[in-house]
Specification:
heterodimer; A: about 240 residues; mainly alpha; 8 helices; B: about 350 residues; alpha/beta; Beta Polymerase, domain 2; Rossmann fold; four-stranded antiparallel beta sheet; about 45% helix
């Protein structure tokens, strides 16, 4: 039922984004409002894909409130600013770049949701707390696997997104002038952060609580700093 | 011609009496045949489990006469000559229909809400059906009972949670591990509860079972019973790498596993989750190991507390279940075409 409701909402959201996209003649990720709603859209998209497996559908229970909170944030005033003049970038590559980056944040977001569920359930098991959700939630090992795989998928998408951004930049005159752009530096920082998490998990077997806390912490960091660096970046917020 | 029930259960009689009235499955068809041949019943089902022996029947006779005939049949059939007081109970409509529904739902069981009885009831009914001892009336009553059991299972919490130590352990394992099939289980100490717990895990898919005990002979015997492998008691830690669940119940005076020993062993296992079930008194595992990451320790009191909690929840559901059963039984009886005036034999449902 909740899956169908999310699917319905996703349908409307997609239609609205297409309308806006056609009007702008590019992927509608040109200001903070659009980026926020696009991030929401990608979280739902990733959820709807992984939700095809009934075993992973539980993520919806925790993801929906997170989506609602992000949606409320997107509706804050002044986020939907007029589109300024942008550096002359090819629309196709820019759209691919924005879509891949947003999809990667969607996957990181869902990974954090799975990690949050893991921590809740892990705490219940550790302290012998019997609660109603205890019987409904999936085993912690499955939650941990889901969080790990979503994070790895997000990392691959982020890598591809950054590469497409590099290709995109080669199309403009004097691309080196954007070398110190805060958003680019920040994105590389995020990439390194998640690379560290992946190495920690698969090379040093640091699973469990530590990994879950890191996945949540990293996504909270992304959420809190995404907007700030966007505002500071002349390339992303002209 | 009403539905009547005659029998004895764990509520009315001790096991010493019940065992003497039990029917072997192979004997049931012949018993049903002789019951019908003697005119004791037109349609009949015999339910014989370790907790109850009951005859469900439709007969032309008035209830008092029907009960006398069924009782005579039961006593003669088992050549029971000792005096009987209240061990055998009798029920006529509507209580007989209520009782059938309650039995199907596990409300009359020793472990409240258990589901095994439903399978046993279905089997008893199938046996009678296949041998031609049921008719439209018993068929309708039993089919309705199975539907009510299904309804109660989905609409109430009477079957939620585990109410025995073994099944709580299994539930915990299923909350930690994605699959039990590829998890290693080690039984340390060959006690009764640890065997039951291991069996419960086996019934849910666990395959790889190791048994260790101070007496190697006992370990080998239990390992054979469980389809596992015995490991010398001195070497059990050597197998730790492949173990995910430990059930410990030795009679050791001191801890056999403490935090200092487990820490390095967890590194060997690359910090995979580990479920420790300590059912020994005095305890086998130092409580501080629960502070280690990915270690989940439960002692006998923890498991019992969870089981008691679930049982409390089930008891709270009984009133709801009984209300549903009353409504469903009334619907079935009303479907029969209304009740006859008191004093006469009530009409049974199912008259076509």
């Amino acid at each position: 039922m909740s899956y169908l409701l999310l699917l319905l909402g996703f349908g409307f959201h997609t239609a609205a984004m297409f309308l806006r996209g056609f009007r702008l003649d590019r992927c509608p990720v040109t200001n903070l409002y659009e980026a926020t709603t696009f991030a929401m859209w990608t979280i739902v998209a990733v959820y709807l894909i992984v939700g095809l497996w009934a075993r992973l559908r539980f993520l919806g229970a925790f993801a929906s409130p997170v989506l609602f909170a992000i949606g409320v944030f997107a509706l804050m005033p002044n986020l939907d600013a007029l589109h300024g003049k942008r550096p002359e970038l090819p629309a196709a590559w820019t759209s691919v770049h924005a879509a891949l980056m947003s999809l990667s944040y969607g996957a990181f977001g869902l990974s954090a949701v799975a990690a949050l569920m893991y921590l809740t359930q892990e705490r219940n098991l550790k302290f012998h707390k019997l609660r109603a959700v205890f019987t409904l939630m999936p085993p912690i090992q499955r939650l941990e696997t889901a969080a790990g795989r979503l994070l790895a998928s997000g990392f691959i998408l982020l890598t591809l997104g950054l590469l497409s951004g590099v290709v995109d930049l080669t199309h403009i005159n004097n691309p080196h002038s954007y070398r110190g752009d805060p958003k680019i530096v920040w994105s590389i920082g995020v990439w390194l952060l998640y690379l560290g998490l992946i190495i920690m998990r698969w090379r040093f077997a640091q699973g469990g609580r530590r990994f879950a806390l890191s996945a949540i912490g990293s996504f909270v960091f992304v959420l809190l700093t995404f907007w700030g660096t966007n505002v500071l970046s002349p390339l992303h917020n002209p | 011609m009403p539905l009547v029930v005659l029998g004895l259960s764990h509520h009315s009689s001790p096991v010493t009496v019940r065992e003497r009235f039990a029917f072997e499955e192979a004997r049931v068809p012949a018993a049903l045949q002789s019951l019908r041949d003697s005119g004791g019943a037109d349609e009949a089902v015999i339910l014989s489990t370790c907790n109850r022996v009951e005859i469900y029947a439709f007969t032309q006779r008035e209830p008092p006469a029907a009960f006398a005939a069924l009782r005579e049949f039961l006593v003669t059939c088992h050549d029971f000559r000792d005096p009987l007081r209240d061990e055998i109970y009798t029920l006529s409509e509507p209580q007989s229909v209520h009782h059938l529904f309650k039995v199907a739902c596990g409300l009359d069981s020793m472990v409240l809400g258990e589901t095994e009885i439903l399978g046993q009831l279905k089997k008893a009914y199938d046996l009678a059906l296949q041998n031609g001892h049921t008719g439209s009336r018993l068929n309708k009553a039993f089919q309705r009972a199975f539907n009510v059991a299904k309804h109660i299972r989905t609409e109430t919490n009477i079957q939620r949670g585990s109410v025995s130590v073994g099944s709580v352990a299994v539930e915990l394992a299923e909350k930690i591990f994605s699959r039990l099939g590829d998890r290693g289980v080690m039984v340390i100490g060959a006690g009764d509860t640890s065997e039951k717990t291991a069996r419960a895990l086996l019934s849910r898919g666990a395959r790889n079972i190791l048994v260790t005990n101070r007496s190697q002979d006992k370990a080998i015997a239990l390992a054979q019973e469980l389809g596992g492998r015995a490991v010398p008691f001195e070497d059990w830690a050597g197998e730790f790498e492949s173990i995910d669940i430990i059930i410990s119940s030795t009679s050791a005076r001191d801890y056999i596993l403490d935090r200092a020993r487990l820490g390095p062993l967890m590194k060997l296992r690359r910090n995979r989750p580990l479920l420790l079930i300590d059912i020994a008194v005095p305890r086998d595992i130092e409580p501080e190991v629960n502070f280690l990451e990915n270690v989940y320790l439960y002692n006998i009191d923890d498991l019992q507390a969870i089981a008691d909690d679930y049982l409390k929840q089930r008891k709270e559901e009984v009133a709801r279940c009984e209300q549903i059963i009353r409504e469903k039984a009334e619907a079935l009886l009303a479907h029969a075409g209304g009740r006859a005036p008191s004093g006469s034999v009530r009409p049974a449902f199912g008259h076509e």
